[in-house]
Amino acid sequence: MSWLAIDRIDADGSTLECTLRSSPDLERFLTGEPFRVSYDRSIEGVPEGILAIPALANVCPVAWANGGDVYVDRVDATFAHALEEVEASLCSMHDFLEGGTLYARETTSATVTERSVAGDDRHATGDATEDGGSALLFTGGVDSTCSYVRHRESEPTLVSIRGWTITPDRADDEKWDTLRARVSSFADERGLETAFLETNALSALDHAMLLAHYRRYVDGAWYSSVGHGLGLLGLCAPMAAARDVSDLYLAATHWDGIDLEWGSRPDVDERVRWTATRCHHDGYHLTRQDRLDVIADYVRCDAPNLELQTCNRRLDGNCGECEKCYRTAVGLRLSGLEPSNHGYPFSDADYDQLRRSLEAGAWELGEDERYMWEDIRDRVLEAGPEPRSPEERAFFEWLRAADLESLVEDTRAPLSHRLFRVGARNAPTPVYNAAYPALKTMQTGLERVRSR
Question: Is residue 442 pLDDT above 70, yes or no?
């Protein structure tokens, strides 16, 4: 029998910590570190049923992948029901997920007294109401910036999380400081609050082993394909309780018509909820190019100096040389904006290098990138602006005829990397532990949780 247990949940000031135990067959997916999340204000008054949500949101998919049950002392009743719905969605999406059962000694609902962490008695038991505030997971990329523009009238708290694309390791301190400064500047200019969370979720759970074991089933990493919608939203639960947030938004990566096995979709995110808070998968009806149009309208009306941050290589600006930088720059052009005015060193001369890089397989691309380039091509075919240079015209003519599906297939991981994953997947735990450093190095640069 497979199982995972969450023990000794403790809220000390602004830090949440609990221990994870498992049956022997699931031990390889745990590193032995306590699961930890640090917030930027006290969570000591948050009910234990809600304090359990961050860990549950991250360990439950691991248990479901192995037909395992999950045990916890207390859980918020609304979230427990939500987990059943999310489980059904993920199991329907992924054939390798077997599902499991959540066992709790007690299911709870927050009372008025318990929900007054932020000094506000507006919420009683039940689901979200219209009285609370809103929050938005935010990086400054296309998707989250579009969601801000769409919901700016509600003045959402901007939430950024360390522990996903930015690790909690000291080596990433500068990256985290850069992200905090950028998000804080964006918020200050608009009179918004911020919330910064730090977690070791990707090291308390053995992300490298999850990747080694399940990469064969998914187009991407474990978290991008399975766990990140539920996982990211769940990390925010104590923050939402402390700040009286009734609506929590996670910007969509994809859009209606894209049927990919992806961990953040409407049938996952829209089902996540806990007492007094509902979660929203935002902007799914808009393609990426549509979202750039929304941003372009905002730029022309209210924010002429807006800069986006989407780079796959750096956080202190955009390199202008990675696939995502090129893709965003071309999209900005198609929305009528000059990329160099919004954070992208791009000129007409770069079109030739972009084409050659795509044809040479310079980047490892997934199905989602194919859909995004197809979205750009659709705009070129349907309503794109008149090319303003011979270089732009030549690129658009090439894009009209390009076999984008073959470009994706040609950039899959090398056979040697795939075989290494298979070996790690089937190795006894002590053998795997010896191979872990090599696997960790191999995964760097190949797998990422896409920034929003």
Answer: no
Segment 190-214, tens digit of pLDDT = 999 999 999 999 999 998 899 899 9
The Cα–Cα gap between 254 and 273 comes to 21
pTM of the full predicted structure? 0.88
Span 107-148, pLDDT tens digits:
998 653 344 343 333 333 344 445 689 999 999 999 999 999
Stretch (H or E) spanning 17: strand 15-22
Q: Is residue 300 part of a domain?
A: no
Single out the residue of 77, 423, 419, 122 nearest to residue 274, CA to CA.
77
Phi-psi region of 163 (alpha: psi -120 to 50; beta: other; left: phi over 0): left
Domain coverage including residue 245: 3-282
Answer yes or no: is 73 within a domain: yes
Q: Which residues pair with 279 in a beta bridge?
A: 248
Structure tokens at 142: 């296309």
Is residue 140 a contact partner of residue 183, using CB atoms and an 8 Å limit?
yes
What distance in Å separates the CA atoms of residue 367 and residue 126, rounded to the nearest whole number?
A: 39
- Please provide residue 246's backbone torsions phi and psi, each rounded to the nearest 5 degrees: -100, -20
Structure confidence at residue 405 as a pLDDT band (50, 70, 90): confident
In a domain, 304, yes or no: no
Residue 293 resides in a domain: no
Q: Are residues 125 and 172 in the same domain?
A: yes
Query: Where do the DSSP E strands lie in 200-349?
Result: 245-251, 273-274, 277-282
For the chain, what is the domain count? Answer: 3
